[in-house]
Amino acid sequence: MTPTTGAPSGASPNGRTFSMADVVRHYRSLAAESGSGTGPDGGFVYDTVVVGGGAAGAGVLRDLASRRGASALLADRGPFGAQTSSKTGKAIHPGIRYLRMAFHRLLLASGLRTDPGIRQTRAQNAIGAWLDLKLVWYGTRERRILLDTSGRTVEEIPNVVFVLPDSPERKWAVFFGISLYDLFTAVWSWARLNPRGSRVKYFPDNGSLHRELGNLDAERALGGILYWDGKASTDKTLIVTAIRDACFRSSAAEPVRALSHVEVEHYEWSPAQDCFLVTLARRFEHPALPERVTVRARTITNAAGPWVDRVRDRGPGTGGEETTVVYSRGTHLEATNRFIHESLEKDPRLRVGLVPLNAVRQHYLRPFKQNGLWYIQCTTTDREHTDPDCVVPEEDEIEELLHSYNELVDDRWKIGRRDIFNVFCGIRPLAASGSGIGVQDISRMFRINERRVGGGTVYDMVNVKLTEFRWAGSEVGARIARELRRTGVKRLGRSTTRRSAVLPVPDEERYAPNRDDHPRGDPDHVRAKVEHHVTYQMAGSYEDYLLNSGGIRDAVVFDAEGRCDLDLAVLDLVLERMAELLGWDRRRTRREWDAFAEAYLRNMAYADLGRRVREHVPATQARTAD
């Protein structure tokens, strides 16, 4: 669904907005620049064009915006952060399972353990162990940086790991590993002058676990350990905020621009102009603007996530190259009812993530609060996938998650399909391995593959996790700076994203998703929040706002039995407000509703609430019919 280009008439007090109207303005400027570049020295040349507006692209754009003298242009064919980067478990963590993978590979490399599923040499296992240890070590640093610099977008959450009879590691090994994980965190906290001691808590047996958390009924648990990690209140909001912050730091001399609903169709090196010529295609509705413009860039950054190989092949002479990524999918369901919401609201001790250490797929079962609603998000990991354009939750995954959560809690806390209000599925591109290694065993350390195309360099980014997007962006930014210095073009300043907090916008704190005083059920607040997201969070699609930015949670209510339900009047209110702000006519409004309903029904095929949306006629459409 392509957006229109309207925006609220009210101007920002500080002159900064981040809306589709700003995309139109930037695109118009590009068209003017493209028309002026008639000779070898004509037209502006960006230091890089970033392809993809997810986590990887956001990290690169913000890093370059923090460097003195840098310019950059980011383009995404859809809304920012609307694909893999908004289909995560919202965890901001180095990954306890990646630490386990590192030690597992060290034992394989030393010959002290065998694993027929990992057919690699000892040297390859040693390299894999080093990459995963590096990921966890620096990942603890990145979690701390995001906690310090992202405002209320990232916060801490306690988790309890449960050791089960079929867990892949023994209890003492789990206790040792998480203690080391916590030690990494403590070291980085001291390095950032924020000293802290150990925060782990050991539960040597089943009884001690039950005494700590009164909602448990984990009969199979042999013990557990509590540790602290981070979580994003909304993963998409974190990415959009990073891109917005980069644009706010732009200057007229060295512009930093971000375009949503604009696709990079082709790029090639021009020896005559000594730069890349990049063709951009407009995907938003605006008949007065050209459908395509050509911009100039010294480098290309391919941050297209699951589509990284497809974007690579849009350059000359790259068709048919070997696949560089394989896909790992994970499914997420979100469920609540009146008992769960009210219990978590009243007792902070129960706001603990549950992490059963399973033999095969890892599950994360975490309580989140968003838009004043407490709910449980259940997440799976590591199922092989093939098509990045077709990612739909499957029934067995829903059953797997329900069983995993219900096995740990007592009858009052159990959830069923009637309690599910949202289901979604995401995939992650992992670095392909020619040795037949399964997706669950591939290192999660990101890769930056450099390629020479003509006289320029292309950087392909693979497997950038939400937690490491700032780190990966700074790595690419440093490489771009070295390339510009090597070619004698310019010298860029140093990156400052380790310390620089994101720039605020007016009244944003009022709409923080995790505020304790969120006024649920207040239509005036819902209307004002929609306007805020249209003005400052690039909201231009009804489906994207509800399903990726968390707006669906404003419509969650409880029926007479205390089970989960949707207030369809809130969905109508959001649709009507977005149509008013963005200038949608009746047909466009209907298309926006249909796009949301189709996506919601596809994801909720195995949950009860999907039927209510299927049968609903939006209020604006009903009035028109009358």
Question: How would you explain this protein's 3D organization?
Answer:
This protein has 626 residues and is an alpha/beta fold. The protein has a domain of 107 residues. Helix content is 36%, strand content 21%. It contains 17 helices and 22 strands. The strands form 5 sheets. It has a 6-stranded mixed sheet with strand order 8-3-2-12-20-19. β2, α2 and β3 form a beta-alpha-beta unit. α2 runs parallel beside α7, α2 packs across α11 and α3 packs antiparallel against α4. The chain starts with 19 loop residues before the first helix and ends with a helix.
Topology diagram in text:
Elements: H1 20-36, E1 45-46, E2 49-51, H2 55-65, E3 72-76, E4 91-92, H3 96-110, H4 122-149, E5 154-163, H5 171-191, E6 201-203, H6 206-212, E7 223-232, H7 235-248, E8 256-260, E9 262-270, E10 275-282, E11 292-297, E12 299-302, H8 308-312, E13 325-335, H9 338-346, E14 353-357, E15 363-370, E16 373-380, E17 383-385, H10 395-406, E18 420-431, E19 447-453, E20 456-462, H11 469-486, H12 523-536, H13 542-547, E21 556-558, E22 564-566, H14 568-582, H15 586-603, H16 610-615, H17 619-625
Parallel strand pairs: 1-11, 2-3, 2-12, 3-8, 5-14, 12-20
Antiparallel strand pairs: 4-7, 5-7, 6-7, 9-10, 10-11, 13-16, 13-17, 13-18, 15-16, 19-20, 21-22
Helix pairs in contact: 2-7, 2-11, 3-4, 4-5, 12-14
